[in-house]
Amino acid sequence: QEVSKNPPIEEEEEEEEEDEIFGSTGFEALPLSCTRAAVEKMGFSKMTKIQELAIPPLLEGKDVLAQAKTGSGKTLAFLVPMVELLSKAKFQQRNGLGGLIISPTRELSLQTFEVLKELEPKQSIGMAMGGTNRRNEAERLEKGVAILVATPGRLLDHLRNTRFIFRNLLMLVIDETDRILEEGFEDDLRGIISILPKHRQTALFSATQTRRIEDLARLAVANPVYASVASES
Ligand code: ADP
Ligand code: MG
């Protein structure tokens, strides 16, 4: 009898939760090229709402300010367009850095890198983060890393002190922007943005909408498309 008391309520909550996250179309609705097979292989039947909102404008080359709660599939929302962009541009190793993802922590960088590995079989991909061997990273960057996932402090260090090519950067993504700002990396972010080439596509992703993101956005993005999924909590 105890068993029958609670489950119905939990189920209802779960459904509401799902309604908040998932959209109505599948990835096949998107004009994908090089990432199509990898995305299909992941086996997701529907896109999440943030994926539906953010991927199309990003594929069109627009800047995007995206906000949706944790667990709503933001990683694919920026990695798919980035990998597609480099492929379409026929980006070469000698062009240096083409796509850059800034992420607040080592753990989140690693998670993003794991998804990137599934999507990007061709380009060289890499990570740069505090607490790892700086020299090894520098050597890899000098050889050419097309897509880099990096934490702010270490990235700024490389931009200042490592001789690698980043003038051809096509796309910058700042992931978990709210958290990066909360954790005191605002100056690093501003420093990074001031060094990176201005001609690029930019997307800011976060779980919450804050005033500080708006301020940073003024510095980093141009005429952005707002992709925001409101959440109950
Ligand atoms: P966020 O960055 O918004 O916190 P993640 O990108 O880490 O979310 O994704 C959370 C989980 O959802 C991951 O396990 C991911 O594989 C899964 N996921 C991503 N897109 C979809 C989708 N369209 N359908 C089902 N699961 C998805
Ligand atoms: Mg995330």
From TrEMBL:
Residues 9-21 have a biased composition (Acidic residues). Residues 55-227 form the Helicase ATP-binding domain. RNA helicase. The Q motif is unique to and characteristic of the DEAD box family of RNA helicases and controls ATP binding and hydrolysis. Belongs to the DEAD box helicase family. DDX18/HAS1 subfamily. This is ATP-dependent RNA helicase. It comes from Chrysophaeum taylorii. The lineage of its organism: Eukaryota, Sar, Stramenopiles, Ochrophyta, Pelagophyceae. The chain holds residues 277 to 509 of 784 of the full protein.
